[in-house]
Design goal:
This protein has about 120 residues and is α+β, with helices and mostly antiparallel strands. It contains 1 helix and 7 strands, in the order βββββββα. The protein has a domain at about 5-75. The chain is rod-shaped.
Length: about 120
């Protein structure tokens, strides 16, 4: 009986694929076919690395394929957002706080006392 199953991994050309921290291959033509022994425990995770863009993604594996079968795995690495070192164009305007409310109340009291004179 054939105990080998396959993961057919879809990704961008040139991405390195690691399965449980072991190099599995490079995506070429949009796919990478990886053989697995279906009698062993399933892999826990796979990692895509794109050296050109400096991106990486880590994912849990789907269940093992049946003996002689194939499981399709699709993943595309997206660049992660990063913090810019450039200063912000505008700074947010602070909301009036207790100090502003106190100043306004003081002006109202002063205006009322001037009216009474």
């Amino acid at each position: 009986m054939n105990e080998t199953g396959w993961y057919l991994i879809y990704g961008a050309d040139g991405e390195d694929v690691y399965i449980d921290n072991a190099f599995a291959g490079v995506v070429e033509g949009g796919t990478l076919r990886v053989a697995v022994n279906t009698t062993l425990p399933p892999p826990e995770e796979f990692v895509f690395r794109d050296k050109e863009r400096g991106t990486m993604s880590r994912h849990q594996f789907p269940p093992l394929p049946p003996p002689g079968g194939t499981v399709h795995v699709c993943m595309w690495v997206q660049p992660a957002p990063y913090a810019s070192s450039l200063p912000a164009e505008t700074s947010p305007t602070p909301l009036p706080g207790f100090g502003a409310a106190g100043a306004i109340a003081g002006l109202l009291v002063a205006a009322r006392s001037l009216r009474q004179r």
